[in-house]
Amino acid sequence: MGDKRELLILGGGLVGMTLALAAARRGMASHVVDRADPAELLAEGFDGRASAISTASWNLFTNIGLADALEQHGCPIESIAVTDGMKPGRLDFTPAKGDSTLGRMFANRQLRLALHEAAAAEPLIALHSRANVTERHRDEHGVHAVLADGTRLNAALMIAAEGRQSPTRDDAGLVVAKWDYRHRAIIAGLTHAKPHNGVAWEIFYPAGPFALLPLRDDDQGRHRSALVWTVSEEDAAGVLTLSERAFLAEVERRMHGVLGAIAADGPRSSYPLGFHHTARITGQRLALIGDAAHGIHPIAGQGLNLGLRDVGALVEVLVDGMRLGLDPGDAQLLARYERWRGLDSFSVALATDGLTRLFGIPGRLPSAIRRLGMGAIQRTPPLKRWFMDEARGVTGKLPELLQG
Hints:
alpha+beta; 9-stranded mixed beta sheet; monooxygenase activity
């Protein structure tokens, strides 16, 4: 059988690599298979995206030994400002004195670097890069995958972590509910004259949300933020081909001067926005995590955090089972993971979809009603605290790895 391990993780992105590392810290060995070339993934400028890491997700990184490598690169989110087109009725989420921040912003490249460096030093992780899977097999005795070069990888449990277009999920015949928002997220880095003071801006326009996410100042002391601008599919190509001057003018018009004069910091990119959720996240000796199980709108910055909660729950379920002498692919363990994560991920997915549709209704009356609702939340501290706890990811039953 060769090198049989507990886990066969198909997909070596942020969620898949975090799972491999978290499992290794609990004594589980894994094969990680990824089609990408690490040198390209880790190259400067490969991916301009940035991710909001919630308090719970930061606890996970701390508990698996990544905090020291990441701390210097993260920018604390001190507050979140939510506004309907910069009209009166702004909603501010600011933690009470003594509470933790609402999260940290990281460039995705820094997250990948920390994960790959930690995995390279971990003997319980076997990374198979630039590898294509030609065969997947699951039965009552175990799982295996065959790579294009003929290598056979054996394990007790197969994990689908390949993202939204997961071939492992599709191969298993798991039903997916999905729809296309017919929008694209335009991603760009900005430098700006005024400091952001750790404020994340979520400005809602009928065409889609316009988010300004705080990043650390660069080596030259320039203030930086990440832009995530949602535009309709038919407008995306035009926005991407605008000259730099014209693009910045459009961005400044939507920012209403909150960060002062701006300049571009790197190239623009985009990706399509859609919703999907699998009816089930497990099968015979199979578990889905991250975007393979659920893809949501980036409106609340919870996509990656949702996947990291999958990681924490799955590792806890497997560790508890192995203490009892159960095989990692045992159906009872997978049923527990299904119960734990199925409802939570679906609830978050529906909430983000509802927000997207609610703020997408044009017209003065819908805008007035939305601002009235935001004003009511602004004046109700317990409700505001609940929203902040949701943003921090500290509500509900938390896996041990996500606890402080």
